[in-house]
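Technical annex, item 7. During the second reporting period the consortium partners agreed on a shared format for inverse folding records so that results from different sites could be compared directly. Each record opens with the tokenized structure and is followed by the designed sequence. A conforming record, contributed by the partner at site C, is shown below for reference.
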């Protein structure tokens, strides 16, 4: 497995971040790190994404930087140029996946059905996002699909919270869980960094107890 994915597996959780203000990424990263989370997926849902990635890359924070909600190859270019170390997409877009593979860029494409997993396997990928996780069948679906496909690992995202984190984290098919619950829009807007640290710490404790 790629060493960045191996590091993400160790942490077990990927905060899915949406920023209106790129400057918020620095106190946010510090809050996550204080809670034990050393990875951040910054989504291209806002114009602030590339600048936030760049700020984080040039900071002293020891944190893995991913770009999420990547919908175009232009997003890929902007993300990588800014310093993203991995790309996450909501769906399986062959054009984006192939672009990343051909350019040596690490990608976890979104999947929710067997044929998308087969498209990933055919391209030599061993980690995929499972999105939207709860709405697509949750853990039972991961287990059922996983049974057919060797060693592929999933990053379930969508509908994951402190309430169901333990069951996902205890499944060996799950590389890490993605979620917004510790970095909700309102928490960022209100600069509730201590709450973000507390939620992050709670998530890490649950994950460590579950596996
Ligand atoms: C994503 O962008 O991957 C999801 O919207 C995250 O879903 P959540 O808000 O339910 O965690």
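Designed sequence (site C submission):
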């Amino acid at each position: 497995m790629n060493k960045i994915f191996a590091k993400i597996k160790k942490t077990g959780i990927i905060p899915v971040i949406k920023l209106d203000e790129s400057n918020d990424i620095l106190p946010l990263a510090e809050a996550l790190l204080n809670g034990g989370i050393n990875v951040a997926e910054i989504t291209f849902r806002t114009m602030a994404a590339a600048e936030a990635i760049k700020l984080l890359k040039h900071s002293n924070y020891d944190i893995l930087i991913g770009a999420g909600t990547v919908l175009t190859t232009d997003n890929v270019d902007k993300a990588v140029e800014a310093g993203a170390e991995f790309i996450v997409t909501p769906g399986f877009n062959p054009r984006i996946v192939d672009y990343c593979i051909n350019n040596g860029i690490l990608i976890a494409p979104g999947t929710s059905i067997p044929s998308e997993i087969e498209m990933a396997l055919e391209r030599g990928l061993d980690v995929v996002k499972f999105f939207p996780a709860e709405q697509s069948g949750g853990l039972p679906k991961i287990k059922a699909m996983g049974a057919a496909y060797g060693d592929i690992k999933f990053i379930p995202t969508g509908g994951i919270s402190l309430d169901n984190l333990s069951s996902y984290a205890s499944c060996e098919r799950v590389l890490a869980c993605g979620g917004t619950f510790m970095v909700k829009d309102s928490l960022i807007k209100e600069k509730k960094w201590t709450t973000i640290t507390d939620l992050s710490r709670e998530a890490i404790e649950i994950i460590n107890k579950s596996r």
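The domain at 3-210 is CATH 3.20.20.70 (TIM Barrel). Residues 16, 131, 157-160, 178-181 surround 3-phosphoglyceric acid (CB under 6 Å). All partners now use this format for quarterly exchanges.
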